[in-house]
Amino acid sequence: MKKFLILFLLLVPLRAFGQTTSVTLTVVDSSGGAWNNGVYVATLTPPPGQPPSQFFLNGVLMTSNQLTVTGNLNAAGVATFNLSSNTSITPSNSSWGFQVCFNQPSNPCYFSSPTTITGGSQAVNLTPPPAQGAPEVIKRIAAPIFSATDTLNDAVSTEQFYASSMRIPANTIAANVVLQFFIGLEWTTSAAATNGTLRIYIGPTNGSATGAKAIYTSTQSSPATSLTLNSGMVFTIQGTQAPGASTTMWFSNSGGTGASFPIGRSTTSATQGSLATNADLFVFASITWAAGGSGANSLSVRQLIAGPGPLF
To answer: Is pTM, for the whole model, over 0.70?
Structure first.
């Protein structure tokens, strides 16, 4: 009798352990875009050809919370949750169906084919077509910046970095995500104007070109003398992949007032890679004067704004 009791106690936890499977669901569409922050619904379905009926898990009637499991995907389009193993469910030959919906106002959804869930853990990878309504626009990642003092002059001829910058939080840049920025500039020249080159960077360290990508580099400008000129430019960053340690993105810009101002010449759309989007990134600017001067020529960053696209 004691041996029977010991054997029974040993079998109970083993039987309970086999009831559930840890499922890792990953949703990346056929264009490589992760369905970041989407919604999933896992529903237990009866064997093919049989009408819906009651389900039993190891002889115990299953509850509604066991029959349907819902939740949210993370920024990489991934979720981990528990489902009852089909091998422990009667009637036999049941399966699980997955519905995933993209995080957009139109909420396009995708339905998987029946999947058998069994074992201690299982990966389920879904590849829906690209979601309609993408790309998604991030409306605000940081408060607008205005400065009356962020000015760099031509007394220094090496590259100088502006204090104004914006932090892009980790995992913000992903497939189908668009960020737009506006930078407002003011150029003051003396009777002996100095040429300068403006650069806008995105990188892992604020104010450092090391490991950063120059998403805009102006042609060296030849400004008119004795002027104060204000202008600005919108530039766009578009994610193409799920957040990771080395990812690719698109960028482009528009704006400018002419050859006498550093944003009078704009670059075409291009890609940048090898940036860690699963960590914080920073957008910042620099100026490189052609030669050291008296300090009477200066370029100021007055505004830096991140907002919904299009900004104008």
So the answer is: no
